[in-house]
Specification:
The relative contact order is 0.19. The chain is mainly beta. Helix content is 6%, strand content 45%. The strands form five sheets. Strands 1, 14, 15, 17, 20 and 22 form a six-stranded antiparallel beta sheet that branches. Strands 3, 6, 8, 9, 10 and 12 form a six-stranded antiparallel beta sheet that branches. The protein has a five-stranded antiparallel beta sheet with strand order 2-16-21-18-19. It has helices at 12-17, 343-359, and strands at 27-29, 38-40, 56-59, 61-66, 69-74, 78-85, 91-101, 107-112, 115-116, 120-121, 127-130, 137-144, 149-157, 166-168, 172-175, 179-187, 191-198, 208-215, 219-226, 238-244, 247-256, 262-270, 282-288, 291-297, 301-305, 322-326. It is globular and about 65 Å long. It has three domains: 12-41 and 162-272, Galactose-binding domain-like (Jelly Rolls), CATH 2.60.120.260; 56-157, Jelly Rolls; 279-359, Arylsulfatase, C-terminal domain, CATH 3.30.1120.10. The chain has two helices and 26 strands.
Length: 362
């Protein structure tokens, strides 16, 4: 299994034949081969490890089997799930679990995207109401099992939006349904996002397309938004020139609503040398008996993919498929921060997935 693969439809012949559709000469295309676009969609069920989607059992779990069925058993009190949310509606996290060890009247804690929820009763088929208004994108769901030991057979949500269609080329990014495409970048200086947005010809009333600009320091800003209706729809594609701040910046193309796809044309970043801004980025692959571990490291963070669950050999340690370490605060790499929401971590993910796509398995 190759981790984190999103098929990029890079069609060189088509791009060359349609040169007028490429970004301006002084701009670096968003689909550039060095940074993998991170495509996010919702899912009703969470994938069991090893998984690299945004909907998964993330860390603190050990795969177990009992009575002919498989499950994820917690190792220690704190475990993490991860899910993609593409709107701000309320949800319910449903779990089908077997309680292996717990005291009478046991409860467990839930924390999602930094929001602490009331204690929840630890019962089979536990359901946790999640608040609305949470951030969009990948969200960690942290469970504090408080000494209990459980085997979760399945976890997910009663409703998830069907994945929207996404095609990516250097010339055009086609996006529909509910989907987000993240382009995290490390910008040496302020820059400009250039391109055009072509709305669908026959949109549904509730459709929305937007460009969100995120930074670790300044939160999220809606830099561009399109909704159907109004005289401007008669003007054709909208020209985009959106300012980007220096540093780690996430460009998110967001589509909401069930309807035909829109197209982002000639999308690129002008006024920045992305390769020169890479700093001390290190990318590597290490083959071992359990499989190949892929690593991307910056001055601050280290991201490790372990597709074959190869970083642990016994049930006293979780067999995580992804590890994130804060090298400044934890130089010994003793605490897995997988699920941490940082643009710099997503930048490492984009660089690592593109590197794996280019180089393959050693």
């Amino acid at each position: 299994m190759r981790p984190g693969r999103h098929r990029l439809l890079l069609l060189p012949a088509l791009v060359l034949a349609c040169g007028r559709e490429a970004p301006p000469g002084d701009a670096t295309p968003l689909v550039d081969g060095r940074n993998a676009p991170l495509v996010l969609t919702e899912s009703a069920l969470l994938d069991k490890a090893p998984a690299y989607s945004g909907n998964r059992f993330l860390s603190g779990w050990w795969p177990g089997r009992r009575d002919g069925s498989s499950g994820e058993v917690n190792v220690g009190d704190r475990v993490v799930l991860e899910a993609v949310f593409l709107d701000d509606r309320e949800r319910r996290l449903a779990t089908r679990l077997e309680i292996l060890e717990a005291g009478p009247g046991a409860t467990f804690g839930v924390r999602i995207a930094g929001v602490e929820l009331p204690p929840q009763p630890l019962v089979p088929d536990a359901e946790v109401p999640l608040p609305g208004g949470l951030p969009l994108g990948r969200l960690p769901i942290e469970l504090d099992l408080r000494g209990a030991r459980v085997a979760i057979r399945a976890a997910g949500f009663g409703h998830a939006w069907q994945a929207g269609a996404v095609d990516l080329t250097e010339a055009a990014i086609v996006q529909g349904g509910y989907s987000a495409i993240d382009f995290p970048r490390r910008l040496r200086s302020s820059a400009i996002l250039v391109g055009r947005f072509e709305p669908p010809a026959d949109p549904e009333p509730d459709q929305r397309f937007a460009v969100l600009i995120d930074t670790d320091a300044g939160g999220s800003e809606v830099a561009f938004e399109w909704r159907p209706g109004g005289w401007r729809d008669l003007l054709g594609p909208r020209r985009l020139r959106l300012p980007l701040p220096a540093g780690f910046t996430r460009i998110r193309l967001l589509a909401q609503g069930l309807g035909p796809a829109g197209r982002w044309l000639r999308m690129g970043i002008a006024g920045n040398d992305d390769e020169a801004a890479s700093g001390n980025l290190q990318l590597s692959a290490t083959a071992g008996r359990a499989g190949t571990a892929y690593t991307a490291a910056s001055d601050r963070y280290k991201l490790v993919y372990a597709p074959d669950l190869g970083l642990a050999t016994d049930t006293t340690t979780s067999r995580d498929a992804e590890y994130v370490f804060d090298l400044r605060r934890d130089p010994a790499e003793s605490r897995n921060l997988a699920g941490a929401r940082a643009v710099e971590i997503d930048w490492l993910r984009a660089r690592l997935e593109a590197w794996i796509e280019r180089n393959g398995t050693p």
